[in-house]
């Protein structure tokens, strides 16, 4: 991560958004002494780029106002949640934020006792009742947007009866769905969420944390404000679909008489064009083996972005560019690519790799000789120093850098033409060999020893420079190139709702050659491969014996920030 000074500078440079304005006002008016925010995922799947927005927003506000940030697992629903997801979410949040202490991690299920007490309090105040209607009847009684609901026949039960029945719900005397606890609010409210919402239901199910301690579980709209209040959250930031739930959120914290109740604030979700974020769709891609798990580099789960080679800094830059607002919009994936290029540009060494090799033989270069050339690691950042790159009589160059019959304005290698071998010498093509199908297999050249890079040679100029690797010292590697998994032109979904998959989303090149310095790379290390883009060592499949590089992004950009 950037240093604290750098972060401050970045923050100061950004326009302030509406949530910062709200917090500023709360502080100025004395309503908030210390800002506490939280990111509250349900551990029922992997986090994606959209969640990263919420994480960085909450984490960033806590840091900016010198407050606290909590990661709270919203694990109140025993049905869908799994420990596996708890682990992966923790790792993702730690990666995105740069750090995460144990004492920043909370579990909603740790508050089941307090939630139960809260329910008792509402019953005693006459604000909650046990209802025997079935789920279907409750729906019928609720009415519609244009018609008020009808009151449940169980609505006027006495406090004593409600206390007794609720205790019986808790002690397991009822079946799933037989009874629920409901808030007593207003069946005629124009807001459907206020029409006596269910607070607790019976579910004879084992919970991943509390095991079989409970057979009643709180509903989200009841549990969430209590969780926030218990943790002293001051600003409970969520996405727009919860706007209609805010009156209920406020009702819960008010009726439970929490001191300094939390305040819910909604913002617009992040949508990226031509990517898939829906859990249902990703799960299907995984199950159908179209992708290699939730961290397939073509996906935008946080683990996939990490495996693809994105950095937390690039994701933070992206979120800063997106901004925070209340209006729904979608952002082009190219903007995310722009951010990773910007982030890696000065930080990563620029290496030579040949992805589609043909042999180049320098006929006048001594046999069995290898010389070591001094090469700058990053011409735009001197601080990255130099490295030695071996050079010899036989090299590999990329197929696209040689043509038998070049079109106009092709300045690379062709018979009779002279080019610079990057960081090395001028070579002139004298001959070439093709196979039976006419594909070039070898190119012959002569070199001019006077033209060595860095020697100060100024005798003549050439128009083209091509990269290469020395055949004798090169290592073989596999390279994986990616395109969007859904077709950019045609949109994400077909008319029948199925995904419109791009057949070229993955290209595997098995016969690539890399310069020897790259063979030392560790999983997740990333580099620029000159002319080809930015690449990282795949953290899942790559090994010392069989190195695999993922292309993070090519060098060309269609996106320009305004
Ligand atoms: P999904 O259904 O897309 O997996 P979710 O909303 O079900 O997402 P939760 O675990 O409930 O997942 O979300 C945790 C937090 O992340 C919530 O506060 C939610 O509002 C926020 N969040 C989810 N998707 C986005 C998004 N696309 N942009 C910003 N915040 C998001
Ligand atoms: Mg959810």
Short description:
Helix content is 26%, strand content 23%.
Distance between the termini: 25 Å
**Which fold name is given in CATH as the topology of the largest domain?**
Rossmann fold
Q: Order of strands in the sheet with the most strands?
A: 12-25-26-27-23-24-13
What count of structural domains? 3
Query: Which residue ranges are poorly predicted, with pLDDT under 50 across at least 5 consecutive positions?
Result: none
Bound molecules: adenosine-5'-triphosphate, magnesium ion
CATH superfamily of the largest domain, called what?
A: HUPs
- Estimate the global geometry from the Cα principal axes: elongated
Q: How many strands appear in the DSSP assignment?
A: 27
Residue fraction in strands: 15-25%
Determine and state the CATH class of the largest domain. Answer: Alpha Beta
Structural class label: alpha/beta
| Residues in helices, as a percent range | 25-40%
In DSSP terms, counting alpha (H) and pi (I) runs of 4 or more, how many helices?
A: 13
Main sheet attributes: strand count, strand direction, barrel closure: 7 strands, mixed
């Amino acid at each position: 991560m950037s240093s604290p000074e750098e972060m401050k500078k970045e923050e100061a440079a950004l326009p302030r958004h509406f949530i910062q304005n709200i917090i500023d006002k709360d502080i100025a008016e004395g309503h908030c002494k210390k800002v506490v925010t939280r990111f509250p995922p349900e551990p029922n799947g992997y986090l994606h780029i959209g969640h990263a927005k919420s994480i960085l927003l909450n984490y960033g506000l806590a840091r900016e106002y010198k407050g606290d940030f909590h990661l709270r697992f919203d694990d109140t629903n025993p049905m869908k949640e799994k420990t596996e997801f708890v682990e992966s979410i923790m790792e993702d949040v730690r990666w995105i934020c740069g750090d995460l202490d144990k004492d920043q991690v909370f579990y909603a299920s740790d508050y089941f006792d307090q939630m139960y007490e809260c329910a008792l309090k509402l019953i005693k105040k006459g604000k909650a009742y046990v209802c025997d209607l079935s789920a279907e009847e409750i729906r019928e009684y609720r009415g519609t947007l244009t018609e008020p609901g009808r009151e449940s026949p169980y609505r006027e039960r006495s406090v004593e009866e409600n206390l007794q029945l609720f205790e019986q719900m808790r002690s397991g005397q009822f079946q799933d769905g037989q009874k629920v606890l409901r808030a007593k609010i207003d069946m005629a409210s124009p807001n459907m969420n206020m029409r006596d919402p269910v607070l607790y239901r019976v579910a004879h199910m084992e919970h991943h944390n509390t095991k079989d301690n409970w057979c009643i579980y709180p509903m989200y709209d009841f549990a969430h404000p209590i969780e926030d209040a218990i943790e002293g959250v001051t600003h409970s930031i969520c996405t727009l679909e919860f706007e209609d739930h805010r009156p209920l959120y406020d009702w819960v914290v008010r009726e439970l008489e929490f001191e300094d109740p939390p305040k819910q604030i909604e913002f617009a979700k992040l949508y990226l064009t031509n990517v898939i974020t829906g859990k249902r769709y990703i799960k299907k891609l995984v199950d159908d083996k179209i992708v290699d798990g939730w961290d397939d580099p073509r996906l935008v789960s946080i683990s996939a972005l990490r495996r693809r080679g994105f950095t937390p800094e690039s994701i933070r830059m992206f979120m800063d560019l997106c901004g925070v607002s209340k209006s729904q919009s979608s952002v082009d994936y190219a903007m995310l690519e722009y951010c990773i290029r910007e982030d890696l540009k000065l930080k990563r060494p620029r290496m030579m790799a040949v992805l589609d090799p043909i042999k180049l033989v320098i006929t006048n270069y001594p046999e069995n000789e290898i010389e070591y050339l001094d090469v700058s690691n990053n011409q735009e950042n001197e601080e990255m120093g130099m490295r030695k790159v071996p050079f010899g009589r036989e090299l590999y160059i990329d197929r696209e850098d040689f043509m038998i019959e070049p079109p106009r304005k092709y300045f690379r290698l062709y018979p009779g033409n002279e080019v610079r071998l990057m960081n090395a010498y001028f070579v002139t093509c004298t001959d070439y060999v093709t196979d039976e199908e006419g594909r070039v297999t070898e190119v012959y050249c002569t070199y001019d020893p006077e033209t060595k890079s860095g020697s100060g040679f100024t005798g003549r100029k050439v128009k083209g420079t091509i990269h290469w690797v020395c055949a004798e010292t090169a290592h073989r590697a596999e390279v994986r190139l990616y395109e969007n998994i859904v077709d950019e032109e045609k949109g994400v979904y077909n008319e029948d709702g199925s995904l419109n998959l791009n057949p070229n989303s993955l290209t595997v090149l098995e016969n690539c050659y890399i310069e020897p310095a790259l063979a030392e790379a560790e999983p997740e290390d990333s580099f620029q491969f000159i002319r080809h883009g930015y690449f990282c060592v795949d953290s899942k499949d790559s090994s010392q014996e069989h190195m695999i590089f993922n292309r993070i992004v090519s060098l060309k950009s269609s996106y320009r920030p305004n």
